[in-house]
Amino acid sequence: MNQETRQFHDEWNSAFAEFKHIHKEQQEETKKFGEEMKETRNMLEKIHERMDEVETKMNRPKIQSPEEKSTDSDYTKAFNEWVMTGKDSDLRNLEKKFNFPLMNETIDTQGGYLVPPEFSSFIVDSLVQYSPIRQYATNITMRRKEFRIPVQQRAQNLQTGAPAAGLFKTSWGQDLSTIDQTDTGLLGQKTLVLCDINALPFTTLDLAEDNFYGSTESYVMQNLVKSIAYEEGYGFTLGDGVLEPTGILNPTVTADYSTVTATGAANTIGTTGNLLFDAFYELPDWYARNGTWFMNRQTIRIIREWVDGQGQYLLTSNYGNTLANDAPATILGRPYQEIINMPAPNAAGVYANGSIPILFGDMKSAYYTGDPATGMYMLRDPYTSKGIVKFFTRTRVAGNVILPEALVKIELAS
């Protein structure tokens, strides 16, 4: 554990110890007066915010210091030398010496070099922190631009359980009885298509040449993560499916989700927890048990501010218990995930007309993402801007909703 990680853990432990102390006071006040004091409630909210901030810091992608780095491959060492100085003789010598079996260890035909596996893996792993849908979706490696996935038509009416066209026809009988020909169980097809993402991180010539404590490599990787993750996050959420992935909120796919509609003021999600119960039980058990809530951070704020008839927060006791058990916060026993690109309300809690502020369901069954087997390539440009070294970087990613029945959407009150 390095010094920075130890500092985060110490800060977390300090905040958690303070939380337990204040939470105990809250319980005593509730037992004595029927509710906690306003000051105690405010203190708990501040501690929650502090712990959220520490958790965010702890989850940021870590860049190893030189003394922590494992031994790099010859290709990685040569690649880093090229990043810092522009000298590619070692890379070219490696290409002549070895016949690399992996496509991401060759000189790219379009100019520049494909990044080494260690570099590419770091970026893909780190994208989970910024593009969280990756964490929940099914990810596949694609060796061609398109990948076709056979999909069974919906097998049951999800509300009544009655068989639908997706089930194969069956019948009871004896050994020699006639078996009717199966004319149901039809298959459809969904397609994953790789879409280009281009990024342009840059550094100064001085930083590239000095490379003090690996700063150039770290700087480039961090900027690539942020640049690519921003586009990915948008594509996986709102992508139009043309030059971008098909996002989970694309109207062409949300029409196939199950639907629960909020009640209350127009273009809001209301003020009661019944909405969440309705969404939870709208899905079959096998999807709900693996479900996650997806929403913008400001929507989470609104839900956490809901109160019962006695003015008690609906989620306070549940949130406190999950913290005490060192587990993620949950809603109805299932975790929730912030998605920055999902609709956010204004200060009055009102959303844009037609927004879908909350999704719930089994994202691993519903959404597929794809990465190319060839990784990404980079072109070093020290010429077009004086004193600046640019790194033109290209990768590809795919995304599409494969099984919409695994998700339920919450629509706004009308």
Write the layout of secondary structure elements.
Blueprint: H1 3-33, H2 38-58, H3 74-85, H4 89-97, E1 113-114, H5 117-130, H6 133-136, E2 138-142, E3 146-152, E4 187-193, E5 195-199, E6 202-204, H7 205-210, H8 215-238, H9 251-254, E7 258-261, H10 274-282, H11 285-288, E8 292-295, H12 297-304, H13 316-324, E9 330-331, E10 334-338, E11 358-361, H14 363-366, E12 367-372, E13 377-381, E14 388-401, E15 407-411
Helix pairs in contact: 1-2, 3-4, 5-8
Rounded mean pLDDT is 75
Distance between the amino and carboxyl termini: 52 Å
Percent strand equals: 15-25%
* Shape type: globular
The largest β sheet comes out as: 7 strands, mixed
Q: Give the helix tally.
A: 14
Order of helices and strands: HHHHEHHEEEEEHHHEHHEHHEEEHEEEE
- Structural class of the helices, strands and pairings? alpha+beta
Residues in helix, %: 25-40%
C-alpha Rg (nearest Å): 26 Å
- Count of distinct strands: 15
